[in-house]
Specification:
Elements: H1 2-35, E1 39-44, E2 47-53, H2 59-70, E3 77-83, E4 87-94, E5 102-103, E6 122-125, E7 139-142, H3 147-150, E8 159-163, H4 167-175, E9 178-180, E10 191-193, H5 198-202, E11 214-222
Antiparallel strand pairs: 1-2, 1-11, 2-8, 3-4, 3-11, 4-5, 4-7, 6-7, 6-8, 9-10
């Protein structure tokens, strides 16, 4: 009986330990969506699509991006630049239920992590020309293979995820929209607008939120950091020889982090006032 009591006690202790482990695992699983994510959904006025993030290969960049996502910084933001045969860029400006547009508040810059090539369908961080470690809130989708240019420019542009499924059809549709120029010193030299024509601009037809390419929200839909394990993104073949790199001008894919003094003037009246022209 004494031995049976000991065995029963050992069995009870084992069960308690097992339950503690299970509780710890459950707590970890519950906390995981708040701690890290690998798949996010871009919810846009032109359709929703998913982006798989490279958590393990570019951890600092993904952490930086998710900080903005979790804070709701990209809610009602816009695609402010679309260049067919090049990139579609966002993350810098948002529509706060009225004009003018406002800038997305920037956090501290993140260190450059140029691991993967800027191939079609990837998402990468925009930054200031001549400063490889200047990426903050703005990002862009590569609509074509830009690896021959962007992998070696400005220390290499950090690719931190890729569009999956049929998502590129939506990105391509954004790139195909009419774009308008607010001036050479503005972030809006290639502003894509929906249902807005050159004739509208020439006739001073005011732009509304219905014309903007809105990112309604970006949300985490899968927090498993291993979901990118089956993806095979191409690695960059460029090895930076210095911190400089081939800098690019502000408000390009290389300078998306820069702000503009003209933002306060945007949409004060009709867009035609600022000499919009079809690109």
């Amino acid at each position: 009986m004494f031995l049976n009591a000991i065995n029963q006690s050992k069995h009870a202790v084992t069960n308690i330990k097992r339950h503690i482990k299970l509780l710890g695992l459950s707590a970890a699983l519950l906390a995981a969506p708040q701690a890290m994510a690998t798949i996010v959904q871009f919810q846009t006025v032109m359709g929703d699509f998913q982006v798989n993030l490279y958590d393990k290969a570019t951890p600092k960049t993904v952490e930086n991006f998710l900080t903005y996502v979790k804070a709701g910084a990209y809610s009602n933001s816009i695609i402010h630049r679309a260049v067919p045969g090049f990139i579609v860029q966002g993350g810098g400006f948002k529509y706060d239920n009225k004009f003018p547009l406002v800038e997305v508040t920037q956090n501290a810059a993140v260190i450059n992590e140029p691991v993967y090539a800027n191939k079609r369908g990837t998402i990468a961080m925009a930054k200031v020309g001549g400063n490889p470690n200047s990426a903050t809130n703005q990002w862009f989708f590569n609509s074509v293979d830009n690896s021959g240019n962007l992998d070696s420019q400005n220390g290499g542009f950090t690719v931190f995820g890729e569009v999956t499924g049929n998502g590129m059809a939506i990105v391509d549709a954004m790139a195909a929209l009419n774009t308008f120029n607010l001036g050479t010193n503005s972030a809006f030299t290639d502003l894509p607008l929906r249902n807005y024509t050159t004739a509208d601009a020439n006739n001073n037809v005011a732009v509304t939120d219905k014309n903007l390419v809105m990112i309604l929200n970006i949300v985490i839909i899968d927090a498993n950091v291993d979901t990118a394990a089956n993806l095979t993104p191409a690695k960059t073949t460029y090895t930076p020889t210095s911190n400089g790199g081939g800098g690019s001008s502000n408000n390009s894919s290389g300078g998306g982090g820069g702000s503009t003094g003209l933002i306060s003037l945007l949409f004060l009246a009709a867009l035609g006032t600022f000499g919009f022209r079809r690109k």
